Amino acid sequence: MSKKKKLILETARTLFNERGYSQVTIRMIALKLNMSSGNLNYHFKKREDIFEALYFEMASEFDERINVLSKIEISIEQVKNDVERSMKRMLDYSFFWTDLYNLLSINVKVQEHFQEVYKKRINGCFLLFKKMKEKDLMIDSSFEFEYDFLADRMINYGNTWLYSGSIYPNKLNLANIDYHIHTFLSILFPYLTFKGKRKFQNLLPEFFG
Predict the structure, then answer these.
(1) HSE (CB half, 13 Å, CA atoms) of 114?
(2) 54 in Cβ contact with 12 (< 8 Å)
(3) CA–CA separation, 69 and 168 (whole Å)
(4) 127, burial (CB in 10 Å: exposed 0-12, middle 13-18, buried 19+)
(5) ∠120-111-42 over CA atoms, to 5°?
(6) What is the set of domains in the chain, with CATH numbers?
(7) 184 in Cβ contact with 154 (< 8 Å)
(8) pTM above the 0.85 mark?
(9) 141 φ/ψ sector (left φ>0, alpha ψ -120 to 50, else beta)
(10) Burial code of 141-159, b = ≥16 C-beta within 10 A, e = fewer?
C-alpha cells in the first residue's frame, strides 16, 4: 500500500472516531489532508471503500491473534493481557464498534467476513477452554451446552463493550479500560477451578479485599 493511501486511511479513521462514520464525507477527509476530492477519489472511489480498507486493516490483527492461539502458553495473566491488547486495539477503531449494526449492513464483504470471524472466535474460545482445563484452571461444564453459552457470552461482550461505553462516555477511554477488562474476566471466574481462582485472586487482589 502506498504512503498516500496509508495517510488517507489514518486521517479517515481519526475523523470517523471523532465524529462517527455517517458524519464524515470524502470532502471532509480531503480537506483535512489539504488535497482535492478528485485526488482522494483516485485512491478510493467512495467512502465505503475507505471503510472496507479500515475494517480489513483492523481485522488482520484479530485474525492473527486467533491463528496463534494454539501456540500460546495459557495462564490467567496471559488471558488478561490478551483481552487488554484486544480492547485497546478496538479503541483505535471505535467508530466501527460503536455503530456495529449499521456499518455491517452497508458492506456485504465486511458483513460476510465478520460472520466468518465469529465462527473462528467461537472455536478460539473452545481452544482456550481446552487449554485452561489442561492447566487445571477451568472446571468441566455442568451441562451439554454450558460452554457454548459461555463462549457466546464472551464474544457478545467483546463486540458490544465499546457501544455500551459510548453511552457512558466516562468509561470510553484508556484510563478506564480496566473496568471493561475486569468485567470480561469476571465472566470466566465462576468456571475456574480452585487453582484458577487463586491465580485470579493473585492477579487482581483488589477485588477480594
Answers:
(1) 19
(2) yes
(3) 32
(4) middle
(5) 120
(6) 1-45 (1.10.10.60), 48-208 (1.10.357.10)
(7) yes
(8) yes
(9) beta
(10) eeeeeebeebbeebbeebe
The CA-based diameter of the chain, rounded to the nearest angstrom, is 63
- Spatial separation of the C-alpha atoms in residues 191 and 201, rounded to whole Å: 14
pLDDT in tens, 155-183: 999 999 988 877 665 556 666 788 899 99
Give the C-alpha separation, 78 to 42, whole Å.
Answer: 44
Nearest CA among 171, 42, 162 for reference residue 100: 162
Residue type at 152 in one-letter notation: D
User: What are the distances in angstroms from CA 28 to CA 14, 23, 37?
Assistant: 12, 9, 9
Cα–Cα distance measured from residue 180 to residue 178, given in angstroms and rounded to the nearest whole number: 5
